[in-house]
Amino acid sequence: MSARIYSANEMSTNEIVEHILQGHLVAIPTETVYGLAANAADEMAIKEIFQLKNRPENHPLIVHIAPPVLGQSAENFWETKLSEWSYDVPPEAILLAKQYWPGPLTLVLKKSKQVSMLITGGQETVAIRSPKHPWTIDILQAFNGGLVAPSANRFGRISPTTAQHVLGEFQDSDTDNELMILDGGSCEVGIESTILDLSRLDQMGPIILRPGMILESDICITLGLEKLGQKDNAIRHSGGVLGHYAPHTQLISVDVGQLTVEDIGDQQVVIVTFLDIDELKNKWTKNSIDWIHIPLDPRFVAKQIYQLLRDLDQKGYQKIIFDILPRGIEWSGIQDRLTRAVYGSGVH
Q1: Is 197 helix (H, G, I), strand (E, B) or coil?
Q2: Residue 236, in any domain of the structure
Q3: Which of 6, 30, 47, 222 lies most in the core, judged by the most C-beta atoms within 10 Å?
Q4: Is 0.85 surpassed by the pTM of this model?
Q5: Within this chain, do residues 13 and 145 fall inside the same structural domain, yes or no?
Q6: Residue 258 is part of a domain; what is its CATH number?
């Protein structure tokens, strides 16, 4: 496949919309990660996403929809918009949409009949969100429909947070069509959206299927709840496989302060840590260790983690060692990504 990056002054919104309507894929920027977008009403284009990503067809996609245009009342907007995709839109969905959309929250609802089973992975639920990026919002508002847009990378590998990441993933793909990549800069949030299941409220209550930077405590405050329901495995969702977001280099996560010489041996490694690097270098005099310090700031780490893992994956290390993350709900989304990246890395 030929793939090309376009800046905002090279391609008009109408040209992008027409490109999508013709059945082509477009890599779009969002506040979370870059997505590989296709018309949610075009099954041929959706199948091309699965083929290009090598994504299992039972792995559901997320439908991306537009927020209100400037000056438009949001009072009945979200109920009307969500009703295009779900036959059962609970009041909780409207409250959350008003509070967090556009933004990094995905809602899982009971799907309407017109939603393709290709989108839902064969399930009777559909995942929906409204992304927060000005260029993508313009496209969605002009498109006046839904776009499916899983992360623009090979399935299971590190999600892209820049246009260059997308180009690196797909420039050598074996397909006839050019992939248009829209350069919207670095992603502001950096990890994928929180996914909240609202399809079984009567039985289970709201359930976080995938943690992100919209926290359980945030959702509880919005809905007036003390706690959310407990996750089960009844609903498949994006990012739910054990090995995901993973580098080719073996990645482990350990307490760096407790590392021993035996843990490292003679391998060429890089250690990513929250600890003071100067003190660690005094303890470790081995030339085979490179050190990277990161601040104890969940928003910073979320924004940078995929970029960091991509960079380190290309430097020929035998192992990437990532310090254990702090406990706390604000780290839950990052911990989820790191755990899956560890499992999927190296020989897995």
Answers
A1: strand
A2: no
A3: 30
A4: yes
A5: yes
A6: 3.40.50
Residues 225 and 96: their CA atoms lie apart, in Å, by 13
Please give the Cα distance from 80 to 97 (Å, whole number): 12
Please determine, for residue 348, whether its predicted confidence score (pLDDT) is greater than 60. no
Within this chain, do residues 79 and 190 fall inside the same structural domain, yes or no? yes
* Segment 143-163, tens digit of pLDDT: 999 999 999 999 999 999 999
CATH of the domain at 14: 3.90.870.10
199 phi, psi to nearest 5 deg: -85, -10
Please count the other Cβ atoms lying within 10 Å of the Cβ belonging to residue 328.
Answer: 10
Residue in the block written with tokens 């992100």: 212
Structural domain that includes position 95: 3-223
Beta-carbon contacts of 80 under 8 Å, excluding residues fewer than 6 positions away, are none
Q: Which amino acid is at 258?
A: Q
Same structural domain, 184 and 128? yes
Domains in the chain, number: 2
Tens digits of per-residue pLDDT, 249-276? Answer: 999 999 999 988 777 878 899 999 999 9
Dig out the tokens for 137 from the structure. Answer: 């919002």
> Is residue 77 in some structural domain?
yes
Q: Is residue 239 assigned to a domain? A: no
- One-letter identity of residue 250: Q
**Cβ proximity of 309 and 158 under 8 Å:** yes
Cα–Cα distance, 226 to 219 (Å, whole number): 10
C-alpha to C-alpha distance for 72 and 79, rounded to whole angstroms = 14
In whole angstroms, give the CA distance from residue 30 to residue 72.
22
CB 133: neighbour CB atoms within 10 A? 22
Domain match, 44 and 112 both: yes
User: Which of 228, 223, 181, 184 is closest to 207 using CA atoms?
Assistant: 228
* 271 domain-assigned: yes
Q: What are phi and psi of 142, to 5 degrees?
A: -75, -35
Q: Which residues contact 11 (CB under 8 A, 6 or more apart)?
A: 180, 182
